[in-house]
User: Fold this.
Amino acid sequence: MTATVTSTSAQPAPTGITFPDGFVWGTATASYQIEGAAREDGRGPSIWDTFSRTPGKVFAGHTGDVACDHYHRYAEDVALMADLNLGAYRFSVAWPRIRPDGTGPVNTRGLDFYDRLTDELLSKGIDPVVTLYHWDLPQTLEDRGGWTVRETAEAFAEYAQVVFGRLGDRVGTWTTLNEPWCSAYLGYGNGIHAPGRQDPAGSLAAVHHLNLAHGLAARALRSAGARNISITLNPCEVSPLDPANPADVAAARIIDGVANRIFFDPILRGHYPADVLEHVSRITDLSFIKDGDEEIINAPIDVLGINFYTPSYVSAKPGQPAALDYPGSEGIAFRKPVGPVTDMGWQIEPESLTRLLTRIHRDYPGTPLMITENGAAYPEGVHDPLRIEYVDAHLRACHDALAAGVDLRGYFAWSLMDNFEWAEGYAKRFGIVHVDYTTQQRVLKDSAKWYREVIRRNGLE
Assistant:
């Protein structure tokens, strides 16, 4: 397989570590988090428009109505990307902009925006990497069952074809879904994300229909001529708290099943793991899995996107109630973070990224990988040494994985700029570009200037 996107030419690092020639350097964003213009040019409401207006769901009642106003300021933002020497930019398309009710007439004004954005990126030598779904489901589809019903998967494949029909002549890399774990378990399991349901059985139906949506869309895109197809997962790097304790090892195996293998195996092997199906059948009857579905989900991909932020450690704890975002996890406890944490309270452990990448390489050989999100939230302003330290350490972890033989093709920093951080609203800042939400002024943080030098060197000092 070939690399999925091209990178900028880069000079090798004179000292320190150097990444392979052609290694892709980019940043990533998501439509609802940055675009704003929530009611402009025919855009319909998404589940996040509804959820953010539900009292108590999002910090301080924040919404994405304006966000970073990227819809109007995209040219300014692309200029920033060019200044940073980015080789690629991963952005998502808002389904409600394209088909406001999910399945009906196509809104050409929505397509026009992504057309302009794509051309602007290409004019600056930046490869557009399109994610078709980053959580902003049209509200009308949710009203008809959302990801718990098969119709949504079928509608997604149709929407994917519409977007490809407009942008396919210029976009080389197509990512179907971003983090279906979050869409299923945070949206339908514990309800802390849109649409805010708490339904363990429904969350498992959502897992399957998201997997099916990926397979249907991947096949449709390939038939239409897409060159490189991907999906982005956020695997749980889960370890037993005591590796010598068989009960802790068994607990980690259960969490790995419902968090990771329930996605990895049908996508990359063509079937759900038998132990996972047996485990979750206690929660739901699995009648939503139809004959032929697993074959559809197993549509070939060219690269697997990996989003990574923090590890997990689990132990057996009889009597512990199940975590709603891990169906069937009763009797399992998650260790609280130890050591340094980010502003999200997430434990910092770069070596766990190396473990995750080498595990995927070992268990699913021949699968090219891309870090499609990695970064940290900190309350620092423009001067952000902790973010630089975090990214530096995780890039070194990536290099360790490369040295171990992992086929890792690139790295996308999360995020280009501060933005609407889902249920956290505007309280958490992940950007390497600072955004003043009152004036919409963008200012490069120290981390952005540092990252620009990393790209120039194609390595670290």
Summary: The chain has one domain: 17-460.
